[in-house]
Specification:
Strand order of the largest sheet: 3-2-1-4-5-11-10
CATH superfamily of the largest domain: Vaccinia Virus protein VP39
Order of helices and strands: HHEHEHEEHEHEEEEHEE
Helix content: 25-40%
Distance between the termini: 29 Å
Structural class: alpha/beta
Radius of gyration: 19 Å
Number of domains: 2
Largest sheet: 7 strands, mixed
Shape: globular
Number of helices: 7
Strand content: 25-35%
Length: 265
């Protein structure tokens, strides 16, 4: 079963503690800091659309891309909750490692450690090149990563669980320091119409990247790193930072808006 296929059924329930409103506010502060006034924004690996939906409420035109049809189904349902004056979010079922757009966007977002899910360096470089290709001249790419410190010292070899009235999950975590791969094995128990519980299991993998490696790959993709910040601040990361944000800028297009630098293939 692919990652998040079963989790999509209860994703919003178990992610209710995620500070989405705080994240949206932080992104807008980044835009202001770096002088960007975006109209069209791409939310890469958008999940159930919690970020896309909030920006759409604020009047931004949004595109959301995710590999999971189940997540996108949940995201699309949120369009009905948008105010009449807001545009519905356009959701596309695509792999972020080979996504395609009809045109360019002012900003690309990739949040909630989605970058860590790309465990191959070459694939990550491809994603960065694609982002560069679809950004408007001087557009911004904003994303976060879970740090190696978090994988090694916080998640480590720990177990987690949570229950609600209609669902429960367990999470067993393991971090391989040699491979820099964080593995978490999850079991979900979801109440069905017979008041019994269906069990689903998934195994997820995230790779720990150093700040230096991410910066190197951004440079190879033709993106300029404008800022690297500790979670939801404009402070520099330290050795105990658990989440780090990167702000990169498009710089490889001519005045015609066409990339003259990279072959994306």
């Amino acid at each position: 079963m692919s990652s998040y296929e079963s989790f999509a059924k209860v994703y919003d329930t178990f992610m209710s503690n995620i500070p989405y409103d705080k994240w949206v506010d932080y992104i807008e502060r980044i835009w202001k800091k770096f002088g960007l006034k975006p109209k069209l924004v791409l939310d890469l690996a958008c999940g159930t659309g919690n970020i896309s939906f909030r920006f759409a409420q604020k009047g931004y035109e949004m595109i959301g891309i995710d590999l999971s049809s189940d997540m996108l189904e949940a995201a699309t349902e949120k369009n009905a909750l948008l105010p009449p004056e807001a545009k519905s979010v356009l959701y596309l079922e695509q792999d972020m490692c080979e996504f395609e757009l009809y045109g360019t966007v002012d900003c690309v977002l990739c949040l909630c450690d989605s970058i860590n899910y790309i465990t191959d360096e070459n694939e990550l470089l491809t994603v960065f090149k694609l982002v560069n290709n679809y950004l408007e001249p001087r557009g911004l790419f904003i994303f976060d990563i879970n740090t190696i410190y978090k994988f090694k010292n916080v998640l480590a070899d720990n177990s987690y669980s949570q229950t609600t009235e209609d669902a429960a999950y367990t999470w067993e975590n393991y971090y391989d320091e040699d491979e820099c791969i964080n593995e978490f094995y999850t079991n979900f128990f979801i109440k069905n119409t017979d008041d019994a519980y269906d069990r689903y299991e998934e195994c997820h993998y995230e790779r720990g990247y150093t700040i230096e490696k991410i910066s190197e790959l951004l440079e190879k993709a033709g993106l300029i790193t404008e800022g690297i910040f500790n979670d939801n601040t404009f402070d520099e990361p330290d050795t105990k930072s658990e989440r780090v944000y990167f702000v990169a800028r498009e710089c490889g297009k001519g005045k015609d808006g066409v990339s003259h630098v990279f072959d994306i293939s």
